[in-house]
Amino acid sequence: MTNPGLEGVVVADTTISDVDGERGRLVIAGSDVEQLAGSTSFEAAARQVLAAGGADPAPLTDAAFGAARAAAWELVPRLGDALDHPDAMDALRTALAHVRPVADDAGAALAAIGAAPVFVAAWNRRRAGHAPVAPDPALGHAADYLRMTLGRPGDERCVRALDAYLVTVVDHGMSASTFTARVIASTASDVISAVVGAVGALKGPLHGGAPGPVLDMLDAIGTPDGAEAWLLGELAAGRRIMGMGHRVYRVRDPRAAVLETAVRPLASPRLELARAVERAAAKILHERKPDRPLAANVEFYTAVLLDAVGLPREQFSATFAVSRIAGWSAHVLEQRRTGRLIRPASHYVGKMP
Ligand code: COA
Q1: pTM
Q2: Long-range contacts for 93-96 (Cβ within 8 Å, ≥24 apart)?
Q3: Is 210 in the pocket of ligand 1 (CB under 6 A)?
Q4: Which ligand 1 atom is nearest residue 298's CA?
Q5: Most informative mutation of 7, 294, 298 for ligand 1 (most atoms within 8 A of CB)
Q6: How many other β-carbons are positioned within 10 Å of the β-carbon of residue 226?
Q7: pLDDT in tens, 322-350
Q8: Do residues 16 and 327 lie in contact, with contact meaning Cβ atoms separated by under 8 Å?
Q9: Burial 86-118 (b: 16+ CB within 10 A, else e)
C-alpha cells in the first residue's frame, strides 16, 4: 500500500517541537507557542531549539547572532547575480549556497541563521534600486532585519510584532521542509546543503508560499461583504483558498491566534477584513467538506502581520525562512545523532523486462 503523502508516518523521535493536530497545540522546546511568542526574542527561541537539537547553547549568545549577520555582510559583494533573482526564495537559496560549510555543525547553523536576514534584506533593497544596508550587530535579529529591509529603524511596536512572528514559526514538527533538511542531513551531508534544500521545499505554495497570495486575496476581496462571492468564485474555478487548511491540524492552527494577537497593537487596516474573510472561508469550506475540518493556518495572519510591519509581500516566504532556518538546523543536529540514512522504498508499477 503506497502512502504518497506519508501521513502519520513517524520518522524521528524529537525534543525540538510537537504538533498536536487534534487539540491545536504547538509545543516548542518544552514551551507552548503562546507563551514563547509573548515572552522571548527570536535569538532566545533559536537558542532553545538548537539546544534541543543537541547544540551547546553557551556560544549562541545574542552577540553571536549579531556577529553572524556581520560575517554574512562580508559575503554580499561576492554573491554575484544571486540577488538578481526576481523571486526572493530563489535569491535566498542561491545566496545561502555561498555560505561555506564548516565542520562544526552549530557554527555552520549560526552562519546560516545570520546570513538569511542579511541576504533577504539585500535582495529587497536591490530590487527597489537601493544599496543594501549593513547589519548592526548590536541590534536584535528582528530589529536589524526590519532596519536592513526598510533602510531605516523600524517602529518599536513593529519590531516586537516581527520578533513574535519569528518566534512563532521557528519550528513546527516534521514539516515538508524540515523533513527535506533531515533527509539531506541523514546522508552525512553538511548543514548548509540541508538548509538550501529546505528553502527549496518551503518555496512551494502548499507549504511556505501562501502568505503573499493571502494578501492578494484580501486585496481582491476589498471589503467584508465581498468575501463570500469571491471565495465561492475561487472554489468554482477549482482553486484552493490560501491560508486555509492544514495537513496536521483538524482545528484552527494555534499560530493563527498568536499572530492575530501580535498584530493587534499595530492597528492594521487589514485585520478586520482578514477576520471577516476567515469567517466566510471557514463557513463555506465547512459546508463543502463537513467531514474535513479546514480552518485558518499560520499563513493567514502571517500575511496581515508582515504587511503591517512594512515588509513587502514578495518577501513573506523568505521571512518565514529567516526564522525556520533555526528549526531546520536544530533538526539537522538531531538527525545527525541518529546516524541513520533516511532511505524509504517505492512500489514499482512499470513494465518488467
Ligand atoms: N481550500 C479549498 N479546499 C481545500 C483547502 C483549501 N485551502 N485545503 C484542503 N482543501 C480540500 C482539498 O481540495 C481536498 O478536497 P478533495 O478531497 O475533494 O480533493 C480536501 O480538502 C482534503 O484536503 P487534502 O488535500 O487532503 O489536504 P492536505 O492535507 O493535502 O492539504 C494543505 C493541506 C495545506 C496543502 C491544503 O489545505 C492547502 O492547499 N491549503 C492552501 C495553501 C496553504 O494555505 N498553505 C499553507 C499551509 S501552512
Answers
A1: 0.95
A2: 93/196, 93/199, 93/200, 93/203, 95/119, 95/123, 96/192, 96/195, 96/196, 96/199
A3: yes
A4: 48
A5: 294
A6: 15
A7: 999 999 999 999 999 999 999 999 999 99
A8: yes
A9: eebbbbbbbbbebbebeeebbbbbbbbbbbbbb
